[in-house]
Design goal:
- By secondary structure, this protein is an all-beta fold.
- A hairpin with a 4-residue loop joins strand 8 and strand 9.
- About 6% of the residues have low confidence.
- The strands form 7 sheets. Strands 3-26-25-24 form a 4-stranded antiparallel beta sheet, with no helix packed on it. A 4-stranded antiparallel beta sheet has the order 4-5-6-7, with no helix packed on it.
Length: 325
Amino acid sequence: MKNTILITAFSILFAACDSEKKTVIPVSLQSKYTVTDIGLYPEGIDYDSKNEKFLFSSLYKGAIYAMNTKGETAVFATSNTLVLPTGIYTDESRNRLIAANADLGISQKSTAKSAGTIASVSIFNLTSGALIKEIDLKNFTPNAGSCPNDIAVDTEGNIYITDSFSPNIYKIDTSFKASLFVTNKVFEPTPGQFGLNGIVFHPDGYLLAVKTDDSKLFKISISNPSVITEVQDAAFSAPDGIELDKNNNLVVVENGLALGKTYTFSSSNSWKSASKISETNIGKEDFPTTAALASDGNVYVISSKLGRLLGGDKTQSSYDIQRIK
């Protein structure tokens, strides 16, 4: 979901103090964490390298949670209008946490009248969790479905948001002004299915985004968003979140609508095509959704058990965050 300059676990910082150099001990992360919370159903995940913690969104509880490196979890941010937070992004350089928000009628905050009426982005202080700004996106789809899903941020701080129910990518600039960045027929979702999903900003200056219903990966120009190309040879099914690893390889999370795996791809031609490097089996029933690059240089994937929630089960209590190969 993001590519940002992280302080890796192998970085050594030196500070002069009484003519002595002190080494900062790098953070140590476990290979797997288990979050225990009835009805959590997490969806989006990112890693805050500034404060050394995972942040993840709860589809059912309408809140964003933080988990430290010891595995201790607590509610970090929420608001009255945060109903179904999907993708999240930790923007450390600007000290903000960005969350996409919708209402699919499955959150405990949903009502009979609210379902389908919410499409927004919430921005919180990354340190305190205090709400900074909420930006409405529903005005771009007044007569159509909308589900803001995932988030990318470019080097200047502009925010890009995919919409799974409409063929749109939105943009929020540094003054919080929202606009329709691009709408295109190739992004049109199959009726009743999710279209656009995970998105990342590549440091070479373009966006990569996946489309769930037809299992495609696209490259989108930022300078000319009408220039959209499908990345060839990237094979997967039901892609959900995506993330760039420390080498700018692309990790694609295949959710429980398929086999529940992750795939890591590289490209030698600026993402005209891709080659698979590795894959990790998470599990169909675990229903992995999104991934995060942590400060130890590894990518971690969260399991949502979302298939259970969509089936009406609100009692699941165990969810894993695990390192992939």
